[in-house]
Design brief:
The chain has 438 residues and is α/β, with parallel strands linked by helices. The chain folds into four domains: 10-120, Rossmann fold; 125-194; 211-379, P-loop containing nucleotide triphosphate hydrolases (Rossmann fold, 3-Layer(aba) Sandwich), CATH 3.40.50.300; 383-437. The chain has 16 helices and 13 strands. The chain has helices at 24-40, 64-75, 96-106, 113-124, 128-142, 146-153, 155-158, 172-207, 224-232, 275-280, 287-290, 305-318, 339-352, 364-379, 397-403, 424-437; strands at 10-19, 43-53, 87-90, 109-112, 212-218, 249-252, 261-265, 293-299, 326-331, 357-358, 383-390, 405-411, 415-422. The strands form three sheets. Strands 6-7-5-8-9-10 form a six-stranded mixed sheet, sandwiched between helices. Helix 1 (24-40) links the parallel strand 1 and strand 2 (43-53). The longest helix is centred in the middle third of the chain and has 36 residues, at 172-207.
Length: 438
């Protein structure tokens, strides 16, 4: 179930500093992403403020002139239909003092990029593991900001009595930091226990009926959830928002194939994802390590898709999944202009990435083509064999059809013969099982 946001519209502006080593394309791509993040939180961005500088202003991130320009805009009564701006989104992680000074000067709440992403993760986490990982990341973000908060609280907030065995003269921030460390340690133990449980469940899934795994990876909002639904015939959350889903979803490829294939979706990648979140969400990407095949989904309509490729490759390398076989899937080709523009784009992509698949998850014929490529991958190492099943063990007949593709079946007075195609391990297991049944 998706988190509800207030019906009353909230308005925001975004602000960003373009450093000298950042190209115009990369800068605009990051700013566009920030606007999408704001939209995901339920804000309507009414204006963007940009400034080129060699470095961030140590006092309040932006230069004095740009801060005054934003203040004038925010204080204008005609800014929005509601007559006010609720927040300013900053496209970098800034210090607590920079955030406080900027908030005082512009006259509205300031949210940096990390805070925005953490809030989105908090709203969208559903499973116990995802919620625990989000809490660790939020606590890690809060910890270094406690001292600044204590300064704002004034002298009464800086010192606390030692009553209760906490130590004489311990400050609020010291106590809070200790609580945060204890809570993070507790959550890490919970996550470790859940990870053991998840590995056991994955092992059971893979052992049961010779299931093979394919995992969707890629940039958030590249259409992975739509593709997941198309490939599995299941109802999974599809929303035009960044990080619409954080939890791994697993379904069976449909129509079913031999061998049966499990399809799993993973949390999407994003540019400039805070390091704490990369570490916290590593376990949500572990499905990629267990997969036999990765579908690397890329938004073909995004001019900056090459950066998407880089981000995904970097993160996969971080978790040790760089050597897992993969198919590059350029999705959303139907979003690339008219038919002529789509054909030109597709030709260019195929020339640059010869083994890729260019498609739209909304076109059944394209989905069928991808389905065929997945099945072909898993069938390339199948073996053919003949199995004999005596009449006394016909209750095992269903296991043959569940684990293998039956090419031919014939019978005599003693039992049935099956010529099958399947994974070597599955065929061997069935053969040994039938031998014991004789």
């Amino acid at each position: 179930m998706q988190t509800e946001v207030d019906e009353k519209p909230k308005y925001a502006v975004v602000a960003a500093v373009q450093l000298t080593n950042v190209s115009d394309v990369e800068f605009e791509s990051s700013l566009t992403e920030l606007r999408e993040l704001a939209k995901t939180l339920g804000y309507k961005v009414v204006r963007s403020f940009m400034q080129k500088r060699s470095g961030f202003d140590t006092t309040a991130y932006l230069g004095v002139g740009k801060r005054q320009e934003i203040r004038d805009f925010v204080s204008s009564e005609a800014t929005t239909e509601a007559g006010h701006i609720d927040a300013i989104f900053v496209d970098h992680e800034i210090s607590p003092s920079q955030a406080r000074n900027l908030e005082i000067e512009v006259g509205c709440e300031v949210m940096d990029r990390t805070m925005v992403i953490l809030e989105i993760f908090h709203r969208n986490a559903r499973s116990r593991a995802a919620r625990a990982q989000v809490e660790i990341a939020r606590l890690g973000y809060m910890a270094p900001r406690l001292r600044e908060a204590a300064k704002l609280a004034g002298p009464q907030g800086r010192q606390r009595s030692g009553v209760g065995g906490r130590g004489a003269g311990e400050s609020h921030s010291e106590l809070d930091k200790r609580k945060i460390r204890d809570r993070i340690a507790e959550l890490q133990l919970e996550i470790a226990a859940m990870e053991v449980e998840r590995k056991t469940q994955r092992a059971r899934r893979q052992d049961r009926q010779g299931l093979s795994g394919v995992t969707l990876v890629g940039y958030t909002n590249a259409g992975k959830s739509t593709l997941m639904r198309a490939l599995t015939g299941s109802e999974v959350l599809v929303a035009n928002k960044l990080f619409a889903t954080l939890d791994t979803t697993v379904r069976t490829l449909y129509p079913e194939s031999v061998p049966r294939v499990l399809v799993s979706d993973t949390v999407g990648f994003i540019k400039n994802l805070p390091h704490g979140l990369v570490a916290s969400f590593k376990s949500t990407l572990d499905e990629a390590l267990d997969a036999s095949l990765l579908l690397h989904v890329i938004d073909a309509s995004d001019p900056g898709f090459e950066r998407q490729l880089e981000v995904t490759d970097e993160v996969l390398a971080q978790i040790g999944a760089q050597d897992v076989p993969r198919i590059r899937v350029f999705n959303k080709i139907d979003h690339v202009g008219d038919a002529a523009a789509q054909a030109e784009c597709e030709a260019a992509l195929r020339a640059q990435y010869p083994s890729c698949i260019v498609m739209s998850a909304r076109r059944p014929e394209d989905v069928a083509q991808l389905h065929g490529a997945i099945v072909a991958f898993f069938q390339q190492d199948l073996v053919e064999a003949e199995l004999f099943l005596p009449w006394s063990a016909q209750q095992l007949r269903g296991e043959i059809y569940a684990s293998c593709q039956v090419l031919e079946e014939r019978a005599d007075g003693e039992g049935a013969f099956f010529r099958v195609r399947g994974e070597a391990n599955a065929v061997k297991r069935l053969s040994e099982q039938f031998d014991q049944a004789r």
